[in-house]
Amino acid sequence: MALRQGLDSHIVIIGSGIAGIAAAQKLVKYGFHNVRILEATARSNNIIEIGANWIHGPSEENPVYCLARHYGLLEPEALSPENQAMDIGGHPPWVPNWFSSSGKKLKAEDMNPAVDLFVELLNEASELESRGGEPQASVGDFIRTETRRRAEEQWQGEGAWTRAQRMCLISNLLKVECSVNGSHTMDQVGLGAFGLYKTLPGLDCTFPGGYEGLVRSLMSELPGGLVTYRRPVSCVHWSNTKVAVQPVSVEVEDGERITADHVIVTVPLGYLKMHHSTLFSPPLPLHKLHSVQRMGFGTNNKIFVEFDSPWWDVDCEIIYLVWEDEEDLVDQVADVKRSWIRKLFGFTVLKPTERYGHVLCGWIPGHESEYMETLPEHEVMHAVTQLIRRFTGDPTITPRRMLRSQWFHDPWTCGSYTYPGRGCSAQDLDNLMEPLPTKGSSQSQVLFAGEATHACYYSTVHGALLSGWREADRLISHYSSTGPPEPLWSKL
Ligand SMILES: Cc1cc2nc3c(=O)[nH]c(=O)nc-3n(C[C@H](O)[C@H](O)[C@H](O)COP(=O)(O)OP(=O)(O)OC[C@H]3O[C@@H](n4cnc5c(N)ncnc54)[C@H](O)[C@@H]3O)c2cc1C
Q1: Per the database record, which ranges form the Amine oxidase domain (predicted)?
Q2: Measured between alpha carbons, how far is residue 142 from residues 60, 124, 419 in Å?
Q3: Among 10, 15, 23, 20, which Cα is nearest to 248's?
């Protein structure tokens, strides 16, 4: 069918996160004029800095970076060739401050051998995917086994105190990785699939005016009224038969049914895990469902805390909190109700100070974070205050105010972002992005976008953006006799 006729087709996009907006933007740009987005919440976007704040790998290959530059949303430093050329392999070279649970400041030079070992192990774990080997089932198992073995070999000459301290530090770094991956423990993150995630060159940068600026700029390219808010979709009715007259319809929570030629589902994987049985009729094919279940979607929350004056060094960019009784390489808390705060691995420092004041962003992943969400704000504030007083040894430090995210209890997200679970492979990501019906039809009734559907940039804004463009391309190709179009961002 010629693209011109296809431009009349009715396309419903579920979800107005970056994936949904990107899909709409590309379709509208190509001339599709019956596109609409149904969004469950009242918000005009969901990625204000309580969620994403960095562009990971800001360089030419990163479409978020290219768009941000195009819209003039970045500062000169982020645009410099030096910044883009820096290949940090996912580990930004931030200036650290280390504090211990007995209130001492630890010296970076004493900590560095443990950091180096940890980074070496993460890099090795990433390489296993291309080698097709999986000596252990999870990244956690691998790191524990290899840390013990190599520490025995490499740190023999060190005193018992130093060796113990380094093991405690590795426990802290395991919690950092839980935050990075959005997992409860690194024992849930599949070792064989860990290397599927790819980093891009460039030193992570932020939007001085907030990530919101990107969403606003993209939205400005859409016709007004294209997004309907407070319209949660309760069911997507699709057809498993080869020929269907009106292939798909979307049922909204108030009972209204909207028919369409195509539906692009961009709901988060956490939502899909919880609601797949009611969201699709007929249900998802088994292989797709199994991948939804196998892939991981955990919680990572931010706790912003503001102070009158800093208790960290002027140049400090990240603060690590090392518990001195965690020699056992632990990344989970045994008694969550009593000790959930132990999972908060530390803080990043919001820079520049002239813009933000003295604000830290605490990071807490896992079930401990999910429990934290249930507590009243003053209890969280109290726990954070006690934590900081203990680690600095200064009983006078008092935060001015606090703000936290609650991603797990957000009914439309049900967590933070995707990681490959134990036993996962590239096939699971292929299954997640595969349209319905999966076999014997070229109809592409129901398409899937969203960060969880990107083969190597899952868990990121650029992954979400590319997944939206990918599904728009799929429809453009479907109606086009000239083959798939050029990527949109190459034209910017
Ligand atoms: C704490 C945190 C920090 C992060 N930091 C970074 C970072 O620094 N850099 C980075 O690149 N990425 C980061 N991310 C990840 C990034 O924010 C996400 O990968 C990205 O925003 C996902 O976009 P999306 O469009 O796939 O999903 P979403 O933005 O979740 O959009 C899905 C939409 O679907 C809607 N929806 C759900 N159910 C329904 C329904 N039934 N009917 C209608 N609508 C529905 C939801 O309300 C939502 O608006 C972070 C995430 C978190 C939580």
Answers
A1: 18-476
A2: 34, 10, 17
A3: 10
Give 243's pLDDT tier (boundaries 50, 70, 90): low
Q: What is the mean pLDDT of residues 222-247?
A: 87
How far does residue 397's CA lie from ligand 1's centre (Å)? Answer: 34
Q: Is the pLDDT of residue 245 over 80?
A: no
Lowest-confidence region among 9-18, 31-40, 233-242, 400-409: 233-242
Position in ligand 1 atom list of the atom nearest CA 418: 19
Tell me yes or no: is domain 96-198+300-404 CATH 3.90.660.10: yes
Pocket probe mutation, ligand 1, options 39, 61, 236, max atoms within 8 Å of Cβ: 39
User: How high is the pLDDT of residue 364?
Assistant: 98
Q: Are 295 and 415 in contact (CB under 8 A)?
A: no
As a whole-number percent, the residues of the chain with pLDDT over 90 amount to 79
What pLDDT is recorded for position 52? 81
d(CA 101, CA 38): 48
State the closest ligand 1 atom to the C-alpha of 232, by its place in the atom list counted from 1: 42
CA distance 223 to 227: 9
Residue 302: enclosing H or E segment and its boundaries? Answer: strand 300-307
Which atom of ligand 1 approaches the CA of 50 most closely?
Answer: 1
Q: What is the CATH number of domain 3-53+210-296+419-491?
A: 3.50.50.60
Tell me the domain boundaries of the chain.
3-53+210-296+419-491, 96-198+300-404
Q: Using the atom order of ligand 1, give the atom closest to the CA of residue 41.
A: 47
Nearest CA to ligand 1 atom 20: 461
Helical spans, DSSP H, in 156-279 = 160-181, 212-219, 269-279
Amino acid 95: pLDDT: 92
Nearest CA to ligand 1 atom 21: 461
Q: What is the mean pLDDT of residues 446-468?
A: 98
Substitution site in 344, 363, 403, 413 for ligand 1 pocket (most atoms within 8 Å of beta carbon): 413
Ligand 1 centroid, distance to 346 Cα (angstroms): 23
261: nearest Cα among 281, 240, 276, 247: 247
pLDDT band at 90 (very low <50, low <70, confident <90, very high): confident
Nearest atom in ligand 1 to the alpha carbon of residue 54 is: 8
Residue 44, pLDDT score: 57
Residue 207 alpha carbon to ligand 1 centre in Å: 17
Name the residue among 77, 76, 452, 64 with its Cα closest to residue 291. Answer: 452
Q: For tokens 């891009």, name the residue.
A: 200
